Amino acid sequence: MSTAAAAQSWCFATVTPRSRSTVVASLASPSPSSSNSSSNLPAPFRPRLIRNTPVFAAPVAPAAMDAAVDRLKDGFSKFKTEVYDKKPELFEPLKAGQAPKYMVFSCADSRVCPSVTLGLEPGEAFTVRNIANMVPAYCKIKHAGVGSAIEYAVCALKVELIVVIGHSRCGGIKALLSLQDGAPDSFHFVEDWVRTGFPAKKKVQSEHGSLPFDDQCTILEKEAVNQSLENLKTYPFVKEGLANGTLKLVGGHYDFVSGKFDVWEA
Ligand SMILES: [Zn+2]
């Protein structure tokens, strides 16, 4: 496998065909998935997140920009005529306000939009998407963005279920499992963010450290969800909702390779 192909196979930075020649991040070593056929690699194998750098994405051509914007306009036109105009019973009440039953945490990965995969209608789910669908523990200083969303969902919107959904081949989870203790960060934010799942990573490495990297990633995708569900309990309003029986926590995992969705109650 070429270095570029190896990087593309795991890197959490989405690399479009346009910018493949200036890959944002790559591996210091070949893909761990090829470790079985690469027994000559230094052991233990540990991919590192590095920049090839300097990072210069190719300039966006004006015609390509116009086409991209037109794609959005066309998408809305289709939504307007085929959905919005045909479902006034859905959209009219939403003009007055929202009363979603669910709060959903989902990865920012472009392949796993929960409204699409779970068929959630507008108004059904108050949604937060971030890298690796993580919920950090309560911290007013570091995590006001996530905390305010949870607080508003629970205290103002009175959601009934908070659902944290992981997914297959999650680049953020791969990055988390790849991080080496003490290694310098390559990005301003990314590594620090995925370290939110550090306890889950340590648990997986402790219990499944002998498995191939990709198998550990699959387990960590779900274990990180479990950790997020535990972290949710550090928010006082979540704790109160759970104690009162007005709130439930649910974990989920969407496997877009096999087309499966697992769900479990915390
Ligand atoms: Zn992901």
Automatic annotation (TrEMBL):
SMART domains documented for this protein: Pro_CA
Xref: InterPro entries: Beta_CA_cladeB, Carbonic_anhydrase, Carbonic_anhydrase_CS, Carbonic_anhydrase_sf
A biological-process GO annotation: carbon utilization
SUPFAM superfamilies with a match to the protein in the record: beta-carbonic anhydrase, cab
Coiled coil: none
Classification via CDD domains: beta_CA_cladeB (cd00884)
A GO term for molecular function: zinc ion binding
Enzyme Commission number, as recorded: 4.2.1.1
Reaction catalysed by this enzyme: hydrogencarbonate + H(+) = CO2 + H2O
Chain residues that bind Zn(2+): 107, 109, 167, 170
Keyword field: Lyase, Metal-binding, Zinc
Keyword Transport: no
One Pfam match: Pro_CA
Listed cofactors: Zn(2+)
Cofactor note as given: Binds 1 zinc ion per subunit.
Main EC class the enzyme belongs to: lyase
Protein task: Reversible hydration of carbon dioxide.
Family recorded in the similarity comment: Belongs to the beta-class carbonic anhydrase family.
The protein's name: Carbonic anhydrase
Organism: Leersia perrieri
The organism's taxonomic lineage, starting at the top: Eukaryota, Viridiplantae, Streptophyta, Embryophyta, Tracheophyta
